[in-house]
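Sanity check

After download, print the first record. It should look like this:
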Amino acid sequence: MGTLFLVATPIGNLGDISQRALEILNQADLIACEDTRQTVKLLNHMGIHKALTSYHEFNEQKKAEELAEKLTGDIKIALVSDAGMPAISDPGYRLVRLCRERGISVVAIPGPNAALTALAASGLPSGEFLFAGFLPAKKNARRQKLVDLANIACTLVFYEAPHRIETSLEDIEEIFGDREACVARELTKFYEEYLFGRLSDVRKRVKPLGEFVVVIAGSKEIQKKETPLSREDVLKKLGMTRNELYDLFFKKNSAG
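Expected structure tokens:
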């Protein structure tokens, strides 16, 4: 059996690629990539020359089967996306699933990730979070998705494209309310920008240029929801012991 390597690549700054990622790319017999033109630029910069094959959202189902078949032999295949970690809002899941089902080794090479980078630098609670990927492109579907997420207490993280960022933020504010948010743009690149504050304020300052990560505070209503009372708490509120409550209940039922 071969081995599938999921190799994280820079999300902007080429200096963020790891030594281990370079070693794996050098050792790979084949590199499967989202866009061969984009990956060639990275490999040329690193002085790596390898056979490439395309693996993207439009051919993923068919190509996953082809690559999984190749991996039944003694071969090392590195899977990369245009930026960040494969299979995280990028192609990769189907191939990984096939490999797991067939007992083929899968090794993830960690590295840059836009969602975690934005979350860590957002100033919003990061102990618990929900990453929801890209919101639906169509307005009705997007708004329904936001309604489904509106009562979640932990921090929410989304990806968004430049041509939808303004309408998405408008929908988020309308459905979530004027929560705290941090909108990150062009992470690790020359024009990197973080906008922090209330959604109503952040929306006014957003420039629809580049790729975005939107970090939103969770629902305070859920966070403040009271914990159900324990049996002991109920007894305290009633000013009774367990035996007194039992006697009251027993006598009432006996009389009935």
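If your output differs, re-run the checksum step. Summary of this record's structure: The first helix runs from residue 19 to 27.
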